[in-house]
Amino acid sequence: MKRISLFILTIVATLFFVACGGTADNKPANNSNASNAANTATKPAAAAPTKDALMAIEKASWEAWKNRDAKAFGDILSDKSVGFSAKDGRQDKAAMIKSFSDAKCEVKSYSFSDDQMNMIGADVAVLTFKADQDYTCDGKKGPANVWSTSVYLRDGDKWKSLLYVENPVVDPKAPPAKPAAAAPAKKDEAKPAETKPDALTDALMAIENKAWEAWKQRDKAGIEGVMSKDFMYVSGAGRMTKADATKEWGDKKCEGLDFKLTDPMGVSLGSDVAFVTYKADAKGTCDGKPVTPAFWVASFDIKEGDAWKNALYTDVAR
């Protein structure tokens, strides 16, 4: 699905993100602290999600995309929503809605299969599924078959869309496509603003750097050590469990590996769940195939005891 500008790079996704911000208090200024606390305590909370309930919201967002209904699309998004665009990079909610409105799309059909729901803590739900789609946006045909990762956040009495990433379905045995050459930077093109470091982002990126360094050093135990017990990786090859991902990243014969992680943004999703998004640049070969050279990453972490552990990882080529 093309939720933002042209999402044909597609994570992620995955999982990671930014911009904390509490809900503004809309009670009169003369309310007492006790009264405010009581109002907060009685605020209805969304029921525990079911897969069918979240897939109904997911379908509504795809219907909004098909019908070019920007208001319906925006109503489904969380205020903390993050997306990735081939044209504009990482986007917040306002930018996502603008890209949605600006894109000229014709959606003929779509369907879902192999859907699954997983929880990250009590307030974050992850849908993963295959989607078959027939659409054109801004004159470009979209991928027909994708693996989708759609993350929802509990927001009062509703579940809101936090992140959507899709990757074209790939055959792991097929030879990789030749990476596209990077477009030369325009002399007058403004550089994106550097993200400001903060304690949460630094803590989450410490885990990411540890995982990437373990991958570079072919340290299988180190790769596994950053993962939560229910870790999941989603890519164009589908879902991978902790054991599958550890094997995927740790067993291949790789040469010349190196990486650089930049532009991180982290966001808290509660006391025990957070996520971070960032750019990753990598080089080297694994089993004779070049690694993906440049992509956006979304990575979700959960606290196990006092330690942050990676619960969900997804990425999308940029």
Explain what the structure shows.
The longest helix is centred in the middle third of the chain and has 18 residues, at 199-216. It contains seven helices and 14 strands. By secondary structure, it is α+β, with helices and mostly antiparallel strands. The strands form two sheets. Strands 1, 2, 3, 4, 5, 6 and 7 form a seven-stranded mixed β-sheet that branches. A hairpin with a 3-residue loop joins strand 1 and strand 2 (89-91). It has two domains: 7-20 and 46-168, Nuclear Transport Factor 2, Chain: A (Roll); 199-230 and 238-317, Roll (Nuclear Transport Factor 2, Chain: A). The model is unreliable at 4-41 and 179-193 (pLDDT under 50).
Order of SSEs:
HHHEEHEEEEEHHEEHEEEEE
The gyration radius over C-alpha positions equals 20 Å
Number of beta strands: 14
The helicity comes to 10-25%
| CATH classification class of the largest domain | Alpha Beta
Mean pLDDT: 84
Distance between the termini: 17 Å
- Overall number of domains: 2
CATH architecture of the largest domain: Roll
Please name the CATH topology of the largest domain. Answer: Nuclear Transport Factor 2, Chain: A
Biggest beta-sheet profile: 7 strands, mixed
Approximate shape: globular
Assign the structural class, choosing from mainly alpha, mainly beta, alpha/beta, alpha+beta, or little secondary structure: alpha+beta
Question: Runs with pLDDT <50, length 5+?
Answer: 4-41, 179-193
